[in-house]
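EI: anyone free to look at a 601-residue chain?
SC: sure, send it
EI:
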Amino acid sequence: MCKRVLLTCFLVLQLFQYTSANNLGEIDSIQPNGTRTRAFDELLVYSQSYFSSHTDKTNEFDKDFIDKNFLKNSITDQQVSTARSVIEELERNQNYVGLISSNDLVTLPIGVKKKIGNIIYTLAISKAKILPTYTEVTAFVHIILPQSDLDDVPIELFFGADNIKISHQGGIYGDADLVLLGDIAIPINGGNGLVGLKGGFDMQTGNTQDLTYVSIDCEGFKEMGISADVLFPRNMLEPVDSDYEVIPDENVKVKGHFQTVVGDWNDILVEIELPPFQLAKSEESGKGGKAGLIFEINNAVFDFSDVRNSSNVQFPEGYQQYLIPGHEQLWRGVYVRNLQIVLPEQFKKRNSDERITFQAANLLIDGVGVSGNFSADNILSIDEGEASKWQFSVDHIQADLLTNNIVGAGFEGKIVLPVTKEVTPEEKNDIATLGQKTLSYEAIIDPINNEYLLTATTNNAIPFDVFKAKANIAPNSYVELRVSEKKFRPKAVLHGNLAIKGSNSTSDPDKGTVDFKGITFQNLQLQTTSPYFQVDYMGYNGEVKFANFPVTISNIEFNSTQTAAALSFNLDVNMMEKGFAGNTTLSIVGGFNENEGLHRW
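SC: here you go
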């Protein structure tokens, strides 16, 4: 009782916030008598986040949806009407007993009331046919749920059955199961979810089956068997098919199903299956889920209990603000212990179209969306990863979701520029080699524009094999990673200097015919589309030698085509301190090719 008083006060405050923030004009029916209504204005603390995006919370489970998907006909309506009349007459006459026996069936209807938790279960006997060894009766069970319909009217359940046999000595023969009369829609999560109870009455044939039912004995209600669907709106979760493409039919929702037997409606905790889905984005953000992530669910638990949570439940970082301190068991939703996250198509292995996945844990789905903290290591090795024919690795990835918003997401790894020799499978774990051949990057995922903001660094001078050079990269260099046609399109914009040391001798390629240590460059661009290679500026400072003679450089030029890049110099060579001098032109030419699916200069 104290818990209910505390929570009722809390609800009054939360309900005021909810209606002010959303203008939905609806009362949240997710929680019965003392569970928390989650107000969307609480999310405004994240609205300034770079990653936050608003999803239209229009109620998809409106009256039209319920009328269309929970049809009734004259047979069901007649059964419900009969049951209602019997219950109303019993309530007027107050003809209740503690234990039903054949001797009590003189005045009908007669019934038994039983209160479990805060719900009253009423059993009513409306007809009786006395036979030599037993009495055959028609019975109904009536339950008023804590949840309300779209008009804020408490939802009523009616169960019924004929031909229930009661012994003249007392007791019911066998199992007496009363089936739910018709399918029932129960809005939850303030309209952001729906529980659809499957009735056991076949409207086409009049036959019954045990889908949702109650079991009774002479003392009334014993337990309830539930067969139900749990649906989520498309403005929160979008279902995807086996190819991870969004199912376009707006009538198809993310839907799970469960069956269970409970002794208390307020204590439903059951395993549930859910199909793959993605997080919905607003229409102006384009197609595809937020950050392109697909969720495949394993080991999900539907928590509709006031008294407990799954023993494994872990609330993600940042979610505590949506819980009542000390009453975490009042949380309701779907808890996923284990799941698989499918990365966007641009994360892929070379020469493969197979989607990259990783295992994750502890995801929540409730009235305010999906929440969870996920991370994984060693997603793509450097010899497997491919970004439009550039080598790259994904060494670590993480995503932090809170109430259907991605509040933090990124990944990190290494990338090999096409002017450097590729990293071989034998070298992928060699730290020294990786340090020499790769740039380390950190990427932040922009889920709104489906872009990746990178910073790339190197601790060593990296080889520029195209010019027989080593390059020191300045801190203001960067690598961008855009997505086009579901592929990564990297582009490197580099600033720094080159140390060129090469030979025109085929017998001694290490002979230092050319030794330039001060070639500077600005805005050197490498990309996967034409033009592949271009430079805005090249100059020099520092020591320059040609065949060990001091040299003066002028007219540095860079030219490139689709298949070649050339760096040319005018050289004035001083062969003696006071004597011979000469002038020549030197060109260092690099060729472009594709080797095993990778671009190389």
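EI: The first helix runs from residue 2 to 22.
SC: 👍
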